């Protein structure tokens, strides 16, 4: 537990700045008086790219390394070609800082409607690998733009990369009451990557005899996500499957407005980054309509990562109580942030 | 429209033989008296592999070519290592017969419960590419089984392969009342493959000015699948995304027990293959518990492909009426098949 926090803040595009402002408000309210919070803002995203053509200059990447953690709002705008900011900034950060654990909890909070009938019991966490798979950028095309174009994408999986995230997932499962870990892959088709994952999953499992294990193909996992989400406790999966499953998980557990995430380097060699799962939603930006709750819950993950467990838990309880007691009137971004800050300080 | 049908039948494993028997029963009932149906059974699947070590010998592949179409029940058993039958038989057939259109309709039938609240209006079809993407088998591993293992999987995408399936999807969208086509990919991360898909999607779209188009990242598509499935009319997507989305689509539209599919070669250079989306379900095999409806609906797709549109429509109407009027008592596989055959003949 640190007595001071140096936080890099990347508000980003669209609703990013609005939700980050609320996240910081709640963070300040949650921190004990004697913990010093220093923030430094980084101007990255679509605006910056339009102005300078830069996505994430090396000099800024270097400076970011000096912080304890990073809070990111959202990156992206339709005016920027698809992939430029994603590959040039978001993924660049995840790779440069070796964020191999992409942590995404899903919980159906009280008084929150699921699109699933009967509002099932949902409380699981996805541990998504963050530095390998088809995200590595080892693709290319030849004869581009011609009728003979071939475009390849390579999914790279290493024993090193798989083992560390699988072990992290086992440890998280071990620490939860149900102690259940499900591996999701597609090892009947992607046999080489799939068998690597499955073999390591089985081997590391021997170190965690109390954890019950399960394997599902990714297609079957999406079925259970809508027919029986209560069966999941901890899920570990590759970068792409994790991307898909966590959006689906967010949708069934009350919507992307509540989904938090952490891009974590458990070794602490580099700062970890926390961000809501949702995007920049330019259509509602600047109108006070964005729900900052996912960002606030990401702040809780950030605090937990930095060793401030009581404060993290207090934020999560505040969100839970706030959702349970909210009325039917629509609240602005600011009002939700204020309500949460009051509860947390309270 | 053919006056005779030579059909290859692959009952396969688990519940495969049971559901195929009902599919054939309904097929016979649906065909006009003057259409001659000849069937030849192929013993392929887990049993065969255990007995002989063979998955799909070349000689049988050759013989299969001589038929007008193939009806497949289900392949697979936990006793066979993952990937052996999938790669050695199912995918081998799809690749050898160039089944580039993997057609998977989703419809919420009357009196059928969706796991989604409010039983939304669901009536769309996924056109999944069937011969490329990460399914090509261009993967491998080095230092296998050591702490330094690297396992790669290559997704191969060609202009030729993408254009033909995209054009097929546009034609299907054009023929439907809503005339809407959604491309699903992940072109912000898989930029090379993604841009190939998007460029061809946009270019071919110029030939279909009446079709409204839309693009979604695969993660966002799973969200809409549970929050607003009515927005979909025709979806075109790559092999892996299509695999994932169609299982999810089956789940939200009443379950995998109702999901039909066709592995189609529209050029008719090779026989097309029709199969339920579900697997061999060894846990309920031989107990008369399997729902043969997905197989019966696959028979409808088969008939439509062979030019027997009225018979195909009659089967689909029979299924719809059967589901609408079924009581609350559980019916056996046989009883459902009988009920459908009577309606179709009727
Ligand atoms: C924006 C995109 C690169 C990103 C991803 O695919 O990882 C997003 O979808 C996410 O899940 O954080
Ligand atoms: C069994 C497997 C190879 C297959 C696939 O992934 O295509 C199945 O999931 C399907 O969707 O037909």
TrEMBL record, chains A, B:
Domain Isopropylmalate dehydrogenase-like residues, every copy: 6-340
Cofactor binding note of this UniProt entry: Binds 1 Mg(2+) or Mn(2+) ion per subunit.
Localisation per UniProt entry: Cytoplasm
Protein residues bound to NAD(+): 279-291
Binding positions (substrate): 94, 104, 128, 219
Site note Important for catalysis, residues: 135, 186
Positions contributing to Mg(2+) binding: 219, 243, 247
Keyword Hydrolase: no
Pathway entry: Amino-acid biosynthesis; L-leucine biosynthesis; L-leucine from 3-methyl-2-oxobutanoate: step 3/4
Catalytic reaction equation(s): (2R,3S)-3-isopropylmalate + NAD(+) = 4-methyl-2-oxopentanoate + CO2 + NADH
UniProt cross-references to Gene3D superfamilies, sorted A to Z: Isopropylmalate Dehydrogenase
Keywords: Amino-acid biosynthesis, Branched-chain amino acid biosynthesis, Cytoplasm, Leucine biosynthesis, Magnesium, Manganese, Metal-binding, NAD, Oxidoreductase
Subunit description: Homodimer.
Family in the record: Belongs to the isocitrate and isopropylmalate dehydrogenases family. LeuB type 2 subfamily.
UniProt protein name: 3-isopropylmalate dehydrogenase
Record organism: Streptomyces albiaxialis
Origin organism lineage: Bacteria, Bacillati, Actinomycetota, Actinomycetes, Kitasatosporales
Gene: leuB
């Amino acid at each position: 537990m640190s007595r001071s926090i140096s936080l890099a803040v990347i508000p980003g595009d669209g609703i990013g700045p609005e939700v980050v402002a609320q996240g910081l408000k709640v963070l300040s309210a949650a921190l004990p008086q004697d913990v010093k919070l220093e923030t430094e803002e980084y101007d990255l995203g679509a605006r910056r790219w339009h102005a300078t053509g830069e996505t994430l200059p090396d000099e800024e990447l270097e400076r970011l390394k000096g912080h304890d953690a990073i809070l990111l709002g959202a990156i992206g705008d339709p005016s920027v070609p698809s992939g430029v900011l994603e590959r040039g900034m978001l993924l660049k950060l995840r790779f440069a800082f070796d964020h191999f654990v992409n942590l995404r909890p899903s919980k159906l909070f009280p008084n929150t409607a699921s699109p699933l009938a009967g509002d099932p019991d949902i409380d699981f966490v996805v541990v998504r690998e963050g530095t390998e798979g088809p995200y590595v950028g080892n693709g290319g095309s030849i004869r581009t733009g011609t009728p003979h174009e071939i475009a390849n994408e390579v999914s790279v999986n290493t024993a090193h990369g798989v083992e560390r995230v699988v072990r992290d997932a086992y440890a998280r499962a071990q620490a939860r009451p149900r102690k259940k870990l499900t591996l999701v892959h597609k090892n009947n088709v992607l046999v080489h990557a799939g068998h690597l994952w499955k073999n390591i999953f089985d081997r590391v499992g021997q170190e965690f005899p109390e954890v019950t294990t399960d394997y599902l193909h990714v297609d079957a996992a999406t079925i259970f996500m809508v027919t029986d989400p209560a069966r999941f406790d901890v899920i570990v999966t590759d970068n792409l499957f994790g991307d898909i499953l966590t959006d689906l998980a967010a949708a069934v557990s009350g919507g992307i407005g509540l989904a938090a995430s952490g891009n974590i380097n458990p070794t602490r060699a580099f700062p970890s980054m926390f961000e809501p799962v949702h995007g920049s939603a330019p259509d509602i930006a600047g109108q006070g309509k964005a729900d900052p709750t996912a960002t606030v819950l990401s702040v809780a993950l950030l605090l937990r990562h930095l060793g401030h467990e009581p404060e993290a838990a207090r934020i999560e309880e505040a969100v839970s109580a706030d959702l349970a007691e909210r009325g039917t009137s629509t609240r602005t971004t600011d009002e939700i942030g204020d309500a949460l800050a009051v509860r947390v300080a309270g």
